[in-house]
Amino acid sequence: MKVSAVIICDLSKTDPSRTLTSLKSNVDEVVIVNTGERIINAESNIINYDSKDFSFAEARNIGIEKAIGDYIFSIDSDEVLVWKDTIKKIVDNNIVDVLYITIKQWHTYLNGKSEFQEYSLPRIFYKTDKLKYSNRIHETVSKSLPKDFTHYSISPEKSYIAHTGYDISVKDMKKKIERNVAKAMDMINRGEADAYTYYHLGKLFGVAGEIAEQLTMYSYALSLKGLNKYHTKELQDYLILYTKMEES
């Protein structure tokens, strides 16, 4: 089985070399979707993404269409794959359609505090025409995963992804939150919002310390019934925990 990595990257501002190095021996090809200044005579594995109405999902889907692998590995330029067992070996030895990988990161909050976080996301999946990313920010593939797909979680002792995109200054985090909230609100105003839009809005409000807004977004996301079982349980557990904290 061949594995294609798809990376979204503004090549005019970001050097993806650390990500690319970490992918050696793990993938058969790397497709880079360049979201920055157009590169003339770009290498064959680089796609220039030109759009005034920027969408991470659209950029990701363009890269997937270009990829030739049986499996797609979705990874970003601010991430590094840390592995003791190769992805290709796991794919070949397990008859599965979706592989969940643990993400490890330090997350800066606007109050100046940082928190270590560890969670799992579907990052490797069998390529089919039905699989498409959605959402212009915090793009997700979860909604299009066929119900009959088999799932497998990679043990973090074998492989995990180290994400550095949120280990930034408070000033830069504030800019990131403001940018992403604006994009999410634009999706709502256009009538494009779904459960995941409100899920990610809740996350953003949480980082900003706006707990009331976070709880409202989480509750509304659950009411839309569009989240997968993992994210549904995550929000339900959070709301239950917060309710208990308020009552104590």
Description:
The chain is an alpha/beta fold and 248 residues long. It has two domains: 161 residues, Spore Coat Polysaccharide Biosynthesis Protein SpsA, Chain A (Alpha-Beta Complex), CATH 3.90.550.10; 78 residues, Serine Threonine Protein Phosphatase 5, Tetratricopeptide repeat (Alpha Horseshoe). It has seven helices and nine strands, in the order βαββαββαββββαααα. Strands 1, 2, 3, 4, 5, 6, 7, 8 and 9 form a nine-stranded mixed beta sheet that branches. Strand 6 and strand 7 form a beta hairpin. The longest helix is centred in the last third of the chain and has 21 residues. It is globular. The mean pLDDT is 89.
Total of domains: 2
- CATH-level-2 architecture of the largest domain: Alpha-Beta Complex
Question: Count the strands?
Answer: 9
Overall pLDDT score:
89
Strand content: 15-25%
Q: What is the H-and-E element order?
A: EHEEHEEHEEEEHHHH
Termini separation: 53 Å
How would you sum up the major sheet?
Answer: 9 strands, mixed
In DSSP terms (H or I, runs of 4 or more residues), the helix count works out at 7
Alpha carbon gyration radius: 18 Å
CATH superfamily assignment of the largest domain? Spore Coat Polysaccharide Biosynthesis Protein SpsA, Chain A
CATH class assignment of the largest domain: Alpha Beta
- Anisotropy-based shape: globular
SSE-based structural type: alpha/beta
CATH fold node name of the largest domain: Spore Coat Polysaccharide Biosynthesis Protein SpsA, Chain A
Question: Helix coverage percent of residues?
Answer: 25-40%
**Unreliable stretches covering 5 or more consecutive residues:** none
